[in-house]
């Protein structure tokens, strides 16, 4: 893991999505921000650990789902994580 | 012509507003005389206010040390995030975002993906004209 030279395209997408969530979390109230960060971080780490890295179909699905959820979270009226917490 | 006719009307209107802001400015100048002097000495320049390299290094080190997964004793200006500090790619995203926040920057994805060590992070911030 430590010295993988370059990130693959799909890895970059996942990291960009993670960055997108963290950026969006910054725009929320501090307490909400912390909750969003901890939920999102747990979700990404859980999937990084549990999902087979060759299972592209499933990873693509997770990326699409994540983008949709990020879209919702970007709405300034949305503060909650109900949709994020409900899954799994 | 029409403009000439409008002028007095506009001036009358404008005159209504300046007075309330003046006492505020005076109060601000009284409590921060140096801030005002500094501002007057170099109006609109962000260049003079640029950070020194030592300051950039110190603050980047501090950001790294405060990340929950990082052992502060291992942090040095040459450290690599993964190899030396044991961070994974998600941690690296968090660290780079924390550096953004510390220096009030927004690093585009393409650049952010390349920053995987302290030397690169320090280089990026030190060369960024808007780092504050």
Give the strand tally of chain A: 0
Give, in order, the helices and strands of chain B: HHHHHHH
Roughly what percent helix of chain B?
A: 55-70%
Give the assembly state of these chains: heterodimer
Class from helix and strand fractions of chain B: mainly alpha
CATH superfamily of the largest domain in chain B: ACP-like
Characteristic key phrases:
heterodimer; A: 88 residues; mainly alpha; 4 helices; B: 132 residues; Non-ribosomal Peptide Synthetase Peptidyl Carrier Protein, Chain A; 2 domains; 7 helices; 0% strand; elongated
Please characterize this protein's 3D structure.
The complex is a heterodimer of chains A (88) and B (132). Chain A is mainly α and 88 residues long. Chain A has one domain. In chain A, 72% of the residues lie in helices and 0% in strands. Chain A is built from 4 helices and no strands. In chain A, helix 1 (9-26) runs parallel beside helix 3. The longest helix of chain A is centred in the middle third of the chain and has 21 residues, at 30-50. The mean pLDDT of chain A is 87. Chain B is an all-alpha fold and 132 residues long. Chain B has 2 domains: 2-41, no CATH class; 53-127, Non-ribosomal Peptide Synthetase Peptidyl Carrier Protein, Chain A. Chain B contains 7 helices and no strands. Chain B has helices at residues 2-15, 18-31, 33-41, 53-65, 89-102, 109-112, 118-127. The longest helix of chain B has 14 residues, at 2-15. Chain B is elongated and about 75 Å long. Chain B starts with a helix and ends in a 5-residue tail after the last helix. Classes of the chains: A mainly alpha (88), B mainly alpha (132).
Q: What's this model, at a glance?
A:
Chain A is mainly alpha-helical and 88 residues long. Chain A has 4 helices and no strands.
Lay out the secondary structure.
The complex is a heterodimer of chains A (88) and B (132).
Chain A: H1 9-26, H2 30-50, H3 56-74, H4 82-86
Helix pairs in contact in A: 1-2, 1-3
Chain B: H1 2-15, H2 18-31, H3 33-41, H4 53-65, H5 89-102, H6 109-112, H7 118-127
Helix pairs in contact in B: 2-3, 4-5, 4-7
